[in-house]
Automatic annotation (TrEMBL):
One annotated GO molecular function: L-ribulose-5-phosphate 3-epimerase activity
Highest taxon of source: Bacteria
Residues in Xylose isomerase-like TIM barrel domain copies: 23-276
Keyword Isomerase: yes
Record's keyword terms, sorted: Isomerase
Record-given protein name: L-ribulose-5-phosphate 3-epimerase
Species this protein is from: Levilactobacillus suantsaiihabitans
GO BP term, pick one: L-ascorbic acid metabolic process
Keyword Isomerase: yes
InterPro entries: L-Ru-5P_3-Epase, Sugar_Epim/Isomerase, Xyl_isomerase-like_sf, Xyl_isomerase-like_TIM-brl
Length: 294
């Protein structure tokens, strides 16, 4: 029986709370940690430039509530991609990564989840792939200097949508500070993926796992990668979790939801927690005990 930490994505929680209120709510809802978001919005990108006082206040809120942040979800590279045709955008992407690594060090975050896009809003080309690969190597070097792990997420995009593709980049950029962050929903939605083999053959590259449901990509449907109710999509959660338990995966799981702007956010998170509590018990996964606030 494995023991794993279970976290909740920041955007799942009510957005009008203070950090201390959010951390307390994380514990009340039965989670071990919060996943921190740096998305493409101006509001969250501004976190990369937090002052020393703002970073101190955040850390103190964590410490007062016996909390931690396992992972920073750095999805801001959708807006400023590493593979952009624009040299100024690529420079901005590298600057963002350095700032994210420095912020992670200051906040005690050990793992930065990278979005596996060469480009998102631009046209994909051989050149965009080459720019991405060159800059990924630079990012890994920056992270290694600070002993921070970069984990590429399997995406809602064919560029990197499997652990097998992440393993290919690891074969070119050999570093323990480059790993993978499989999203069970994203892997399951792509028809070319054999989910069992993808996880089984690459378990040594898995740093963390996202729990999310999806609707599959078909010849006539582009798939649905967000806000699919758990149990109503294509993910065989019981099978995947049973597989990960057999492989002795001991990293963390994070439930990914975007309910924070809804009136019943807390109730929806509670329902998701019950869904996975039942599955964890069924397949033999024990959740790490939740620390209570002093």
């Amino acid at each position: 029986m494995t023991v794993n930490a279970l976290g909740i994505y920041e955007k799942a929680l009510p957005q009008d709370l203070t950090w201390e209120e959010k951390f307390n709510l994380v514990h009340e809802l039965g989670f071990n940690f919060l996943e921190f978001s740096i998305d493409e919005s101006d509001e969250r990108l501004a976190r990369l430039d937090w002052t020393k006082e703002e970073r101190t206040a955040f850390r103190e809120a964590m410490w007062r509530t016996n909390s931690r942040i396992n992972t920073m979800m750095l999805s801001g590279h959708r807006r400023f991609p590493l593979g952009s045709a624009d040299s100024k955008v690529r420079a901005k992407a590298l600057e963002m990564m350095q700032k994210a690594i420095d912020l992670a060090v200051d906040l005690g975050i050990r793992n930065i989840q990278m979005a596996g896009y060469d480009v998102y809003y631009e046209k994909k080309t051989v050149q965009s792939r080459e720019y991405f690969t060159e800059n990924l190597a630079k990012c890994v070097h920056m992270a290694a200097e600070k002993l921070v792990t970069l984990s590429i997420e399997t995406m809602d995009d064919p560029f990197i949508n499997s652990m097998t593709k992440i393993a290919h980049y690891k074969s070119m950029i050999k570093s323990p500070f480059l790993q993978g962050y499989p999203d069970l929903g994203n892997i399951s939605a792509w028809p070319e993926n054999n989910v069992v083999e993808d996880l089984e053959n690459n378990i040594e590259h898995v740093a963390a796992v996202h729990l999310k449901d999806t609707l599959p990509v078909t010849p006539t449907f582009k798939g649905k990668f967000k806000e699919v109710p758990f149990g109503e999509g294509c993910v065989d959660f019981e099978g995947c979790l049973r597989l990960l338990e057999r492989l002795n995966y001991s990293g963390s799981y994070t439930i990914e939801m975007w309910t924070g702007t809804t009136d019943d956010a807390v109730e929806e998170v509670k329902a998701a927690k019950r869904f996975f509590d039942q599955l964890f018990e069924k397949v033999g996964i024990t959740q790490e005990p939740v620390k209570v606030t002093n």
